[in-house]
Amino acid sequence: MQRIFLTGYMGAGKTTLGRDLSALLGLSFIDLDVFIEERFHKTIRQIFAERGEEAFRELERRMLHEVAEFEDIIVSTGGGTPCFFDNMSFMNACGQTVYLRVSIDELAARLEMARQTRPVLQNRTGEALKAFIRESLESRLPFYEQARFIFDAETMDTHDDVRKLSEWLAQILAQ
Into how many domains does the chain fold? Predict the structure, then answer.
């Protein structure tokens, strides 16, 4: 039985790498945000707007505990998931945790293209976007770095890049 939790900042590639890794290892894949959206028939953005962050984080914690009951699964967590309650120690206790580490410059390049789908980023570009990432990443690093494995996910430009990272991560997880 395997449970693998992928953590990291938004844009780190948790979903992209998670899908590929799950296919490679023959495991099920769950994106925690998508799981929540499907369960509540609302987007994360709507849940935040209606209930506020505190209520969302509690709901997220409950859904994390639910998916952690599943076997042979890879879970892509939300960027903030490890940073609330005891989520990181909980994930460490019931599976393997991987922090996908990506530089601020690379995160900014990836997120620049996704600004319209991420409300917190909509009015930030260039240096303002990098400053925002730097500040929020700094506060999240103590949680991310509690992962059992810290994995460099810097290069994901092509499907071949993603496949190479998946194969490399699979070898690390098998040790």
Answer: 1
Q: Considering only CA atoms, which of 80, 75, 117 is closest in space to residue 95?
A: 75
Tell me the pTM.
0.96
Kindly report, residue by residue over 152-165, the tens digit of the pLDDT.
999 999 999 999 99
Q: What region, left, alpha or beta, does residue 45 occupy, with left being phi > 0 and alpha being psi -120 to 50 degrees?
A: alpha
d(CA 25, CA 36): 24
Residue 98: enclosing H or E segment and its boundaries? strand 96-101
Assess if residue 45 is contained within a domain: yes
| Residue 31 structural domain | 3-167
C-alpha closest to that of 100 among 43, 63, 155: 155
Helix (H) or strand (E) holding 75: strand 73-76
Strands ordered across the beta sheet of 149-152: 28-31, 73-76, 3-7, 96-101, 149-152
The answer to whether the beta carbons of residues 140 and 9 sit under 8 Å apart is yes
**C-alpha distance from residue 91 to each of 1, 47, 84, 135, 146 (Å):** 15, 23, 12, 25, 10
Residue 7 lies in a domain: yes
pLDDT, tens digit (0-9, with 9 covering 90-100), for 77-89: 999 999 999 999 9
Which residue, chain included where needed, has tokens 């953590």?
7
